[in-house]
Amino acid sequence: VRAHIQLGGPLVVVWDNLNTHLAAGLKKYEADHDWLTTVRLPSYAPDLNPVEAVWSLVRRAMANTALDTPHDLDRKLRRELRRIQLRPHLTDGCLTATGLAIDPPTPP
Question: Which stretch of DSSP H or E encloses residue 81?
Answer without folding.
Answer: helix 70-85
